């Protein structure tokens, strides 16, 4: 998500928009010589470890993509057709709403079992969702706590208490009672957090390395920051799974390698590189060369993401609006985008809602020149009294992000702001910056909508009440707690007309930008490369990842 985050579900309109814009090469599930071949080992080369594989804590696209091999969610996305289709995964269908979309009922498929052969039950799913409320299981999305009745005060199952708004009348039925109507709740349940966890195998905060499988693959070994080895789950049955296949014998995930070295290794297509694929985007220093090489086109996946790359300004540490506005004008987006690989990475951004997401409205409150407007920036600093400021900037410890940090430092140096860059281990980056104890003046962030609707962008990133509510998984990196914004978020949440709500979100986007709490940088594309013997990869516009659910290695 760069470390990519937060994209699990798409509305039908947004799916069509995303797919229409998607340009990708690589092997689809139908390429190669007929049916997928069986056997062999797929190697996945990753720059850093996963933030989490614990499904209730996963909130990155890499983690979510890998979890698709291990865990089943209530609903999921069948991406074998011309556009993704929401289907039942653990559930027999996409759920049944009642009482004005405030009650949702799901029935589990027969024959789905855990890696030890025991049945997956509704009680396992209930327990799994309840885990998200525990202070020890942090980092995941906020929807369960926001929507389930009683969720605001529930503290998880480890004290022996259950959440009454999740009911399991029998072993195959689960019912969710919501505090507000949520018409697209069944798209939320495609996220990893809505999966089961067998209580007997829950290891709490260490579950990341011990995730119990009901998917086609299970964890054989996990050495943090080094390697994850997945092997076949012999109890998984194709007949119970409408989404996944079990083609390779093993998936070997190598962690902690330099991204540029990964790029060059897979580009070479020599030896083991032929059966390898990457999950992190091509390094900015390599992107232009690789994306323009016609010999690599069949192995390159260039997937537009429903999301935004941006710089968050901590409004509690930089309280002067004039200073924040000066930063808006001072940032040279041309050098910033250059750090990520130039135009191949994406278009310049001026809004927080990106094109293709419901509610997007085109506007620009600050410099129309992507190189910035130093004259305006300096004038604003003068109005603020020309303060001599020193600011901390949090970035991932990758060459791409460190080059980004240098670009920001140079831009702000021109208006008298000294920037101290703080590189943070990429594997722990979001866990670090999401914890309110670790506040920075400036923070690099990218965000992909959980499904392409502004309801999964603006409320998650700018509802200031979440700062205190979710102190270990705060997504409001600008620490914006504007009562007018919070009130409007509540008002829009009650709207039942989607078009009306989207229009209101577009107006709210502009209202938020007037607070100068964030600098939108680019609307993102993600590009990854695979070896020539990797087949069955589906370019996934939902996660903006090459999906591995049908992957195979060619003989």
TrEMBL record:
UniProt-listed SUPFAM superfamilies: Periplasmic binding protein-like II (SSF53850)
Task: For this UniProt record, give its keywords in alphabetical order, as a comma-separated list.
Answer: Signal
Q: Which InterPro entries match?
A: Peptide/Ni-bd, SBP_5, SBP_5_dom
Q: Specify the protein name.
A: ABC transporter substrate-binding protein
Domain Solute-binding protein family, by residue range, is: 85-466
Q: Where is the signal peptide?
A: 1-23
Tell me what organism the protein belongs to: Streptomyces doebereineriae
Say if the entry is tagged with keyword Signal: yes
Record-linked Gene3D superfamilies? Dipeptide-binding Protein, Domain 3, Periplasmic binding protein-like II
One Pfam entry for this protein is SBP_bac_5
């Amino acid at each position: 998500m760069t470390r990519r985050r937060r994209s699990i579900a798409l509305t039908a309109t947004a799916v069509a928009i995303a797919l229409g814009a998607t340009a990708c090469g690589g092997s689809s599930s139908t390429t190669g010589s007929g049916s997928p071949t069986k056997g062999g080992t797929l190697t996945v080369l990753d720059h850093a470890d996963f933030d989490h594989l614990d499904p209730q804590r996963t909130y990155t696209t890499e983690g979510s993509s890998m979890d698709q091999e291990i865990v089943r969610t209530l609903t999921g996305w069948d991406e074998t057709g011309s556009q993704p289709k929401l289907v039942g995964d653990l559930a027999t269908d996409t759920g049944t709403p009642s009482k004005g979309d405030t009650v949702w009922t799901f029935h589990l498929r027969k024959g789905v079992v855990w890696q030890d052969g025991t049945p997956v039950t509704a009680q396992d799913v209930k327990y799994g969702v309840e885990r998200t409320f525990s202070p020890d299981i942090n980092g995941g999305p906020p929807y369960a706590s926001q929507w389930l009745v009683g969720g605001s005060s529930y503290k998880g199952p480890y004290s022996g208490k259950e959440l009454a708004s999740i009911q399991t009348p029998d072993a195959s039925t689960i019912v969710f009672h919501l505090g507000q109507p949520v018409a697209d709740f069944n798209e939320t349940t495609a996220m990893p957090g809505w999966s089961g966890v067998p209580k007997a195998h829950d290891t709490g905060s260490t579950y990341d390395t011990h995730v119990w499988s009901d998917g086609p693959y299970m964890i054989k070994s996990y050495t943090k920051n080094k390697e994850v080895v997945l092997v076949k789950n012999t109890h998984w049955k194709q007949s119970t799974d409408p989404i996944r296949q079990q083609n390779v014998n093993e998936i070997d995930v190598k962690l902690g390698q330099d991204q540029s070295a990964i790029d060059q290794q897979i580009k070479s297509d020599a030896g083991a590189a032929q059966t390898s694929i990457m999950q992190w985007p091509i390094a900015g220093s390599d992107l232009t060369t690789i994306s323009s090489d016609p010999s690599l086109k069949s192995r390159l996946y260039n997937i537009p993401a429903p999301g935004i790359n941006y710089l968050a300004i901590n409004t509690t540490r930089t309280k002067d609006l004039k200073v924040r506005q000066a930063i808006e004008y001072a940032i040279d987006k041309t050098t910033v985008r250059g750090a990520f690989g130039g135009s191949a990475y994406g278009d310049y951004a001026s809004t927080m809602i990106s094109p293709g997401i419901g509610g997007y409205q085109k506007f620009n409150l600050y410099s129309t020149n992507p190189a910035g407007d130093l004259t305006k920036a300096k004038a604003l600093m003068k109005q603020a009294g020309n303060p001599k400021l020193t600011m901390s900037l949090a970035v991932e410890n990758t060459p791409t992000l460190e080059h980004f940090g240098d670009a920001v430092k140079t831009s702000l140096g021109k208006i008298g702001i000294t920037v101290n860059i703080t590189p943070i281990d990429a594997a722990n980056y979001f866990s670090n910056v999401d914890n309110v104890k670790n506040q920075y003046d400036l923070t690099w962030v990218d965000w992909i909508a959980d499904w392409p609707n502004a309801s999964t962008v603006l409320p998650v990133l700018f509802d200031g009440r979440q700062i205190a509510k979710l102190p270990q998984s705060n997504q409001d990196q600008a620490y914006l707690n504007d009562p007018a914004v919070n009130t409007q978020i509540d008002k829009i949440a009650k709207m039942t007309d989607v078009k009306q709500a989207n229009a209101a979100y577009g107006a709210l986007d502009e209202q938020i930008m007037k607070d100068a709490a964030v600098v939108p940088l680019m609307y993102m594309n993600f590009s990854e490369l695979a070896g020539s013997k990797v087949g069955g990869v589906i370019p996934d516009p939902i996660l903006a990842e090459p999906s591995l659910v049908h992957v195979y290695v060619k003989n």
